[in-house]
């Protein structure tokens, strides 16, 4: 997976490419294919590495299964989280997250054509919660809408947020690199935050202030100064949902232990507008770069806290 070609761009990771989209909230009527579909999917991915995908009607999420049959698998993401169905698991409460992110200098910010991605160079660790062993932060990126009523990938009782932040980690206890871990069942761990419009996010401003330098697909910049990704993590990490899922972009590997926090990140309208101003390879603004929820297929979603959550 090292240097997997996604949309013609060599990347070492997760989220890429996208164009203007689509997207009514639930237009994903996929079925669950089981093991056969997964085996076929893996074979096909190896053969067709240059499959173009994006978020437009022609190449958007509804079409991904043509080149990535695992799109119809039983462990796909995102999902709609229904708090009243989430089983409270007290063992999660007993094992808080331990986050040891390090300060980055000259942080790498890239316009992937599908999102903005910040690559992490130092050994920033994550453990605890639902995770076994140590994970290491690889990159973070976001998904967002064209308007503030859409943009998140996960939903809560069908409700979408304006955006969703994904902090992507790989299992450094069991694997030697992100590339090696990316397609393993316990290979990746993603922390997800819903994002709503409100106060300016002072830490995230280090990123959004640089977006005018990466307006074109493929652009990247080293942002001068220091940035610690821990500024993106809220003080209280004790309330979340967790389940086993997948990457939400091709190749859609079913390798992610998902954690979606119920604490919501706030950014200003100006910061949201900065995200919406960067362009994809068709020179259109990147918006609606999210995959809508897919079937849960009987998976258990665990909650780290009791009772139905009320989100605002
Ligand atoms: Zn993502």
TrEMBL record:
Lyase in keyword set: yes
Domain Alpha-carbonic anhydrase positions: 51-305
Cofactor(s), names only, from the UniProt record: Zn(2+)
Keyword presence, Transmembrane: no
Enzyme's top EC category: lyase
Cellular component, GO annotation: cytoplasm
Keyword terms of this UniProt record: Calcium, Disulfide bond, Extracellular matrix, Glycoprotein, Lyase, Metal-binding, Repeat, Secreted, Zinc
Matching Pfam families: Carb_anhydrase
Cell compartments where the protein resides: Secreted, Extracellular space, Extracellular matrix
A GO term for molecular function: carbonate dehydratase activity
Domain of life, source organism: Eukaryota
InterPro entries xref list: CA_dom, CA_dom_sf, Carbonic_anhydrase_a-class, Carbonic_anhydrase_a-class_CS
Listed EC numbers: 4.2.1.1
Reaction equations catalysed: hydrogencarbonate + H(+) = CO2 + H2O
Role played: Reversible hydration of carbon dioxide.
Family per similarity comment: Belongs to the alpha-carbonic anhydrase family.
Protein name stated in the entry: Carbonic anhydrase
UniProt source species: Pinctada imbricata (Atlantic pearl-oyster)
């Amino acid at each position: 997976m090292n240097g997997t070609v996604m949309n013609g761009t060599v990347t070492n990771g997760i989220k890429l490419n996208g164009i203007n989209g689509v997207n009514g909230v639930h237009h994903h009527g996929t079925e669950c294919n089981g093991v056969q579909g997964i085996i076929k999917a893996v074979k096909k991915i190896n053969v067709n590495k240059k499959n173009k995908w994006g978020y437009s009607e022609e190449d958007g999420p509804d079409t991904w299964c043509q080149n990535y049959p695992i799109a119809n698998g039983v462990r796909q993401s995102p999902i709609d989280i229904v708090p009243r169905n989430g089983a409270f698991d007290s063992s999660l409460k007993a094992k808080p997250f331990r986050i040891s992110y390090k300060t980055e200098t000259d942080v790498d910010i890239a316009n992937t054509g599908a999102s903005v991605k910040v690559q992490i160079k130092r050994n920033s660790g994550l453990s605890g919660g639902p995770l076994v062993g140590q994970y290491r932060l690889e990159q973070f990126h976001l998904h967002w809408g064209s308007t503030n009523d859409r943009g998140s990938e996960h939903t809560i009782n069908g409700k979408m947020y304006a955006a969703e932040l994904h902090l992507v980690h790989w299992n450094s206890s069991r694997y030697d690199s992100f590339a090696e871990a990316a397609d393993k069942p316990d290979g990746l761990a993603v922390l997800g935050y819903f994002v709503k419009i409100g106060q300016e996010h002072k830490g995230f401003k280090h990123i959004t202030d640089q977006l005018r330098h990466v307006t074109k697909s493929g652009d990247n910049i080293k942002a001068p100064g220091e940035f610690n990704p821990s500024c993106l993590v809220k003080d209280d990490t004790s309330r979340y949902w967790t389940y086993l899922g997948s990457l939400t972009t091709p190749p859609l590997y079913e390798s992610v232990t998902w954690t979606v926090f119920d604490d919501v990140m706030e950014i200003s309208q100006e910061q949201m507008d900065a995200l919406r101003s960067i362009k994809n390879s068709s020179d259109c603004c990147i918006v609606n770069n999210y995959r809508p929820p897919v079937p849960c297929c009987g998976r258990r979603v665990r909650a780290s806290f009791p009772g139905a959550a009320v989100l605002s």
